[in-house]
Design a protein that fits this description.
mainly alpha, two-stranded parallel sheet, single chain
């Protein structure tokens, strides 16, 4: 009875839930202890608050007093349930004073409640998809995929004895709810046993019929997912494995250099491999300072002369010289700017080469020269407009090109080319007529004598 009184006072005074609501929670619905809340489900607590707001007797009797339960109080009751569930899982004792294992304050239960609402319920139907099966090549990828999957469960966590030395306990919810669960999650309750089997099923799916299966096969009988995971980690992250990773990373740092972009080796690829090598070394205790990384970076890009001024700036500037990320960003911007200039020049060269090729192909078709408009390209004579259009066929175009592509000045210029062609055609016809006349004159009958006053082969036959 005394415990119920203490619990009632805690809900009323510490959590500031209205007394009438607390009476309904304890006296009417029987939630009179932390254990009752810890055993309840989300649905049951939501039903509790809904019933308190509008009990059946009130719904049928308009004269009955209604209990006011605001939304904030309903949420606080739900968060209190999450608090009760958490301290039961991590083995802490409930207390209302700051000097204790699990201080129950409004701020603490709100933090816990929001955390559990964020992760959602971990029912079987909500289990994430299994990682890809182990391919026998990259064990590190296998462990990373498994760790990603395990972040949504609370099974293979660091174990700390609940009877640990208080001096070694950083405190309730320190530094956050996730850390509290990792340190102290119980490993002998129903939740653990159920999740342990779920982890085993995942491990079996990704390792069965692969080289990794023999490492965990011994735990198949009891479906011990935790021990299976520990064995995989010990095998693939053992001393020999760590030594191989560090050796590979050092080889990358020794052999990789930047001398300019190729199809399969861009500056982003260069930076990614460099950063990956440093990350691998740091993961296993070989941490390099930013200053040494920057020095290595400058050495590795020395083969690209276009970055020499950028490297000089990095050496002399205090900010990028001591910040590896900033130095990479500065060099990346320089490479990007250089590539833009190169691409622009290549585009111009292609356009110019193509234009000259077309010019040489059509030069003989156009005959002599005509004064080009003032906006024509000077290096291509009268064969091109300002926009690079080629004046083909002496200015003859289809209607589409004439009206939609050429401007007014270009059309005027084309007209002059057309006129020149017509003039040239008339002159050619006139010359041909004279040639015919000459031929006719020169082929007169030898017996016919020309007139006395006839020119030397220049008169027409009468």
């Amino acid at each position: 009875m005394a415990a119920v009184i203490v619990f009632r006072n805690h809900l009323t005074n510490n959590l500031q839930i209205p007394a009438a609501v607390v009476t309904q929670i304890i006296d009417v619905h029987g939630y009179d202890s932390i254990h009752e809340f810890a055993s309840a489900t989300d649905r049951e607590i939501r039903a509790l608050t809904s019933t308190i707001r509008k009990p059946p007797s009130v719904a049928n009797d308009a004269s009955s007093p209604k209990i006011v339960l605001g939304q904030s109080y309903a949420i606080r009751i739900l968060h209190f349930m999450y608090y009760a569930r958490l301290i039961s899982k991590v083995g802490r004792q409930h207390t209302t004073t700051p000097v204790g294992q699990a201080t129950c304050t409004i701020d603490n239960i709100r933090t816990i409640g929001r955390y559990f609402e964020w992760i959602g319920d971990h029912d079987e139907s909500d289990s994430p998809e299994y990682p890809s099966a182990f391919d026998g090549k990259n064990s590190r990828t296998l462990l990373e995929d498994i760790d990603t999957w395990l972040k949504r469960t609370y099974v293979t966590r660091e174990y700390v004895d609940p009877n640990m030395n208080p001096d070694d306990d950083p405190g309730f919810l320190q530094p956050d709810v996730e850390s509290e669960l990792i340190r102290r999650t119980s490993m002998n309750d129903d939740d653990f046993n159920e999740n342990n089997k779920r982890v085993w099923l995942m491990l079996r799916a990704v390792t069965h019929k692969t080289d990794a299966w023999s490492i965990i096969e011994g735990f198949a009988r009891n479906q011990n997912g935790r021990q299976g995971y520990i064995s995989l980690t010990a095998h693939f992250k053992g001393r020999g494995h760590i030594s191989r990773i560090k050796t590979d990373a050092k080889n990358v740092l020794e052999r990789i250099f930047w001398k300019g972009s190729t199809i399969n080796f861009t500056f982003d690829v260069f930076v990614s491999r460099l950063q990956g090598a440093y990350h691998d070394l740091a993961e296993y205790g070989d941490n390099r300072t930013d200053e040494s990384k920057v020095v290595t970076l400058i050495t590795k890009v020395a083969g690209d002369s276009s970055l020499s001024s950028a490297c000089t700036f990095i050496r002399n500037d205090a900010q990028p010289s001591g910040d590896f990320t900033a130095a990479i960003q500065y060099l990346s911007n320089e490479v990007l700017a250089k590539n833009r200039v190169v691409n622009t020049n290549n585009t111009r060269n292609i356009s110019s080469t193509s234009s000259r090729r077309n010019f040489s192909r059509n030069r003989n078709n156009n005959g002599g020269s005509t004064q080009a408009p003032s906006n024509a390209k000077s290096n291509t004579g009268d064969r091109y407009s300002k926009e690079g259009n080629i004046f083909l066929n002496d200015g003859t175009y289809s209607n589409h090109i004439w009206w939609n592509i050429l401007n007014k000045e270009e059309r005027k210029y084309c007209e002059s080319l057309r006129q020149r062609r017509r003039t040239r055609k008339r002159n050619t016809q006139a010359r041909n007529e004279r040639h015919v006349s000459n031929i006719d004159t020169r082929n007169l009958d030898d017996n016919t004598k020309p007139a006395a006053n006839a020119g030397n082969g220049m008169s027409r036959r009468r």
